[in-house]
Amino acid sequence: MTLDLDHLRQWIGRTEDRRDMVTATPAQALTATLDRDDPAAMNGDSLPPAWHWLYFLPVHRQSEIGPDGHAHRGGFLPPVPLPRRMWAGSQLEFLRPLSIGSEVRRISRILDVSAKEGRSGPLVFVKVRHEVSDARGLAVVDVHDIVYRDNPRPGDPVQVAQAAPAGPTWRRTLAPDDVLLFRYSALTFNGHRIHYDRRYVTEVEGYPGLVVHGPLIATLLLDLLRRERPDARVTHFDFRAVKPTFDTAPFEVCGRLEGDGHTVRLWAQHQGGELAMDATARIA
Q: CB within 8 A of 102, min separation 6: which ones?
């Protein structure tokens, strides 16, 4: 496959302007999905950090959907011809919480498109900056890293496992199943079939099971921090997906407060201590 990087880089600088309303129902539904026993969300309540992912959903028409469940390539994002698309990570700044009941606006801009040769073939990286504002001004900055890659081939090198950090102060074991992944896909209107279509994900994309959404794992890491330090205000959160997580086995979300009292190391790990996601939060 030939990648025309010069063509793809023509998307740098493109913008998208979306508007939405922070309604209570998605927040209540995610609360239930995370198995929290919180009061019902009401107008004026603060939206937890990263829950803006419940809004500005990709409402493509059914005729625009490709065979993997994503919209056909092109449009705002560049038409990268590689078949696998993954959320590789984000760097988020929370200037202040969004509120239930508020009108919000998201301006997105493509910052960069780059490529490199990985162990199993070409990789294309797209970096997008999202700015979310309400009537009071800018509230959330979310720089989103997307990676595109080819399907695996016989003989490709096996990804070397990275050991998770030792000594978590907090940990929670989660057993991902079809219902959890379906509910999160529905909440984010994510049609990507790797998260709910077992035959597709195993027979077409060659994964061993359903893939747990990267932003779901990131949300679970922030939820762990919220459970352990409910009064802390998160000002920054960076996460990086290290290895895919599947519904074939439980995994753990872990964390600890670092020595300065404002930095929280968070990570997700597989059974056996393999690192799945690495993250850092700053709290006030």
A: 21, 22, 134, 135
19 closest CA partner among 107, 80, 98, 92? 107
Task: Write the pLDDT tens digit of every residue in 106-139.
Answer: 999 999 999 998 877 899 999 999 999 999 999 9
Neighbouring C-beta atoms of residue 63, cutoff 10 Å: 6
User: Cα(89)–Cα(210) distance, rounded to whole angstroms?
Assistant: 19
Q: Exposure of 210 by Cβ count < 10 A (0-12 exposed, 13-18 middle, 19+ buried)? A: buried
Helix (H, G, I), strand (E, B) or coil at 215: helix
Task: Measure the CA–CA gap between 156 and 139, rounded to whole angstroms.
Answer: 43
| CA gap 213, 194 in Å, rounded | 9
pLDDT per residue as tens digits for the range 64-95: 998 889 888 778 999 999 988 899 999 999 99
What percentage of the chain reaches a pLDDT higher than 70?
A: 99
Pull the structure tokens for residue 155: 């003989």
In the block, which residue shows the tokens 């459970």?
Answer: 227
151's torsion region: left (phi>0), alpha (psi -120 to 50) or beta? beta
Q: Which of 107, 123, 86, 105 is nearest to 217 (CA)?
A: 86
pLDDT in tens, 240-261: 999 999 999 999 999 999 988 8
Spatial contact of 150 and 122, defined as CB atoms under 8 Å apart = yes
From CA 237, how far away is CA 276, in angstroms rounded? Answer: 17
- 94 is written with which tokens? 């929370």
User: Whole-prediction pTM value?
Assistant: 0.94
